Amino acid sequence: MPTPPATGPLVTRDTVAAQLRLLGVESGEILLAHSSLSSLGWVNGGAVAVVQGVLDALGPRGTLVVPTQTGDQSDPAVWANPPVPEEWWGHIRATMPPYDPLITPTRGVGVVPETLRTWPGALRSAHPQTSFAAVGPQALEITEGHAPDCRLGERSPLARLEERGARVLLLGAGYDACTSFHLAEYRIPAPRVEVGRPAPGGGWETVVEVSITSDRFDELGHDFERDRPVLRGKVGAAAARLFPVADAVAYAERWLPLHRPRAQEFRHPRA
Fold first, then answer.
1. Could you give the CA distance from residue 202 to residue 93 in angstroms, rounded to a whole number?
2. What is the tens place of the pLDDT at every residue in 114-125?
3. How does 13-50 read in b/e, with b if 16+ C-beta sit within 10 Å?
4. Is residue 157 within 8 Å of residue 147, measured between CB atoms?
5. Other CB atoms within 10 A of residue 116 CB
6. Alpha-carbon dihedral sign for residues 159, 160, 166, 167
7. Of 171, 192, 182, nearest in space to 216 by CA
8. Facing residues of 206 across strands?
C-alpha cells in the first residue's frame, strides 16, 4: 500500500520567522517558548528549522529560552507512565546516573527544546528535574543560580524571566504547558512534598519542595486569555499565542487560590 503524501502546510525557517514577526515577536526580546512541532504542519528541516526561525525573528540581541525538563530524574516509586515493578525501585535509585546539564536529555517537552539544548552556545540551568536552556546574550543571567531545592520558584529562571520582561510564546502548545503559571504556586499557600532524585556526587537524595501541578491550567489559561491582552495568530497550521510572563504569573496568583485552593500541609509525593 503506498505511503500517503505529506499533509501541509509546508513550513520553512523563513515561514516561522515571518509569521512570528506578524504575531508580534520583536527583535531583541526574550522569549520563553513552549512548542509542538507536529502542530505546525510539514516543516522543512524539522525542529532545527523551527529554532532557526525563532532565532531569526529575535535577531542577534534576542534570547530564546525553553524548558528542558527531566522528569525521569525522580523516584521510581512515583512513576506512572509507565510504572516499574516495586522490586526494581531500590536498584534504580542506586544506579540512576545523576543529572548532567551537558548530556542528560529532555523528557516530555518535545523535540524543539531537545534541539535547543544542544545548540551552539546554549546554556542550561542546574536543577536536575526542571532545567531551562537558553541561547542569546542574556542566556547566562537567566539560567545561572537555579537552586536545587527550587524547581520553578523565586530562585529559578522563571523569576529571572519575569524580572527581565520576557514574554511567553505558545507555539502549537496549550496553556497546560505554560510553566510561568507554576511561579505563582510559590507565592500562594501550597503543600510541600518530598522529592527524590540521584544526588550530584552519587547516591540518592531527598529534598522538600513546593508541590507543583498543572491541574486546571487549561481553565486558568482560558480565563487569562479572556481577561488579559494575548496576541494570537498562526505559525504554519499551529495556533500561536504571545503574552508577558509577568502578566501570566500575576493572573495565576489571583486565580489559583479562588479556583484551585490547596492545603499547606506536607504531602507524600504519591498523594
1. 10
2. 999 999 999 999
3. bebbbebbeebebeeebbbbbbbbbebbbebeeebbbb
4. no
5. 27
6. negative
7. 182
8. 196
Cell representation of residue 13 = 525557517
Note the pLDDT tens digit of each residue in 63-115. 999 999 999 999 999 998 889 999 999 999 999 999 999 999 999 999 999 99
Provide the sign of the torsion angle of the four alpha carbons 45, 232, 246, 28, taken in this order.
positive
Whose CA is closest to 96, among 67, 76, 69, 80? 76
